[in-house]
Design goal:
Low-confidence stretches: 360-368, 370-394
Mean pLDDT: 77
Distance between the termini: 208 Å
Shape: elongated
Strand content: 5-15%
């Protein structure tokens, strides 16, 4: 926008031509924001606030009168406060390059003054102390012109051709060399000792390895010997276990075979025998029933036959009396007694025959004898009747 000016972040905008700034400064300071500036009536200039550098190379004489060439680098800038900006603007706004020149000259003077109060040994060995003293003495003067120093670095210190620093450092160099040699010797000795130790450890390792190998070999031999001794025994145990297993298997197979035989042979045989026994018993019972039935039938048939033959038997007995001379004294009663005797003899013969059919062989013989006796009695009676002549019946 026309008339509106804005300074850069590392710049301070100085506006002159209007009212005065703070503290009666001939310009107003603007940082961090913009501002309207009337053309023609106002004038704007910019002062850098960025970091600047000044290099100092100065020949200084020490407290001992020895000349030293010192090279240092100073890092500085314009302060951020309005007072420092006003001070620096009034001094360097037209030629800002003069800030580095003036800073170098200021530090060169302070550096010569401080080095003149120190020895070479102090300067060489205490560079940080030297830099701190230079900064401390220049702070007030640098603040007056609006500058602040961020750092001071002593880059090099040289005594030229005098050789003082070299001479000063010779004992240290010798000591360092001696220490280096000692360190080298110690290192060599340590290396030798380490090598010897390594050799000893290798020998110890070889010895231990040999011992271990020997022990291992002995253990292997012992194990092989035990294995060789235990081989037959283990084999015998194994064979015994195999035989036991085979025996147990054979017993199981025998039991199984026995059960199979019982199931396949014994049980069927027993069942067949039981069937045959039952059939035989049934057959015997049937035959017994048939025999009893036949015997009963035969008895019935015999009884019927005997009954049918009884008249014939009585007739035969009576026929034996027909030729006999029998005198019946009591008339009809005597004749009835004779007839009754004949019938009685016939019934006796019938009972004998019945007993012969139901009894055993011996009983049968006895019954036959009885029957025979009956017949003999009948015949003997008949004969006695015929031989004795007439029979007298009272």
């Amino acid at each position: 926008m026309f008339g509106y000016r804005v300074p850069a972040p590392d710049e301070a905008m100085l506006i002159s031509g209007g009212r005065r700034g703070l503290g009666g400064a001939p310009f107003r300071v603007v940082t961090g924001h913009g501002k309207f500036v009337l053309p023609v009536f106002r004038k704007v200039r910019f002062l850098t606030l960025s970091m600047c550098e000044a290099e100092v190379t100065e020949t200084c004489v020490t407290k001992q009168g020895i000349s030293l060439h010192v090279r240092a680098v100073i890092a500085f800038k314009v302060g951020n406060d309005h007072e420092s900006i006003i001070n620096a603007g009034q001094r360097f706004l037209s030629d800002q390059e003069q800030m580095s020149v003036l800073t170098g000259r200021i530090f060169a003077g302070h550096l010569r003054a401080i080095i003149g109060s120190m020895t070479v040994e102090e300067i060489v060995t205490e560079r940080q102390k030297l830099a701190a003293e230079v900064l401390d003495t220049s702070k007030t003067e640098m603040g007056t012109i609006g500058l602040i120093v961020d750092s001071l670095q002593i880059q090099s210190i040289d005594d030229g051709d005098t050789g003082y620093i070299d001479a000063m450092s010779a004992p240290h160099k010798a000591a360092i060399q001696r220490q280096a040699q000692i360190a080298q010797a110690q290192a060599t000795q340590a290396a030798v000792e380490a090598e010897q130790e390594a050799t000893r450890k290798q020998a110890e390792y070889a010895r231990q390895t040999a011992i271990v190998k020997a022990e291992y070999s002995a253990e292997v031999d012992r194990a092989q010997a035990e294995a060789a001794q235990a081989g037959p025994l283990a084999q015998a145990h194994a064979q015994q276990e195999v035989l036991a297993a085979q025996t147990e298997l054979a017993e199981r197979q025998a039991k199984l075979r026995q059960q199979q035989l019982v199931a396949e042979v014994v049980k069927p045989a027993e069942a067949e025998a039981e069937r045959v026994r039952i059939l035989a018993a049934a057959e015997a019972q049937r035959m017994k029933i048939q025999a009893e039935a036949a015997a009963s039938y035969d008895r019935v048939a015999l009884d019927r036959m005997l009954i049918d033959q009884l008249p014939q038997i009585v007739k035969e007995a009576a026929g034996g009396l027909s030729g006999a001379n029998v005198n019946i004294l009591n008339g009809a009663d005597g004749l009835g007694e004779i007839a009754a005797g004949l019938v009685s003899q016939g019934l006796t013969i019938l009972d004998s025959v019945r007993q012969n059919m139901s009894g055993q062989d011996q009983d049968t013989k006895a019954d036959d004898n009885t029957g025979a006796k009956g017949l003999l009695q009948l015949r003997s009676g008949k004969e006695r009747a015929s031989d004795n002549g007439p029979v007298n019946v009272d």
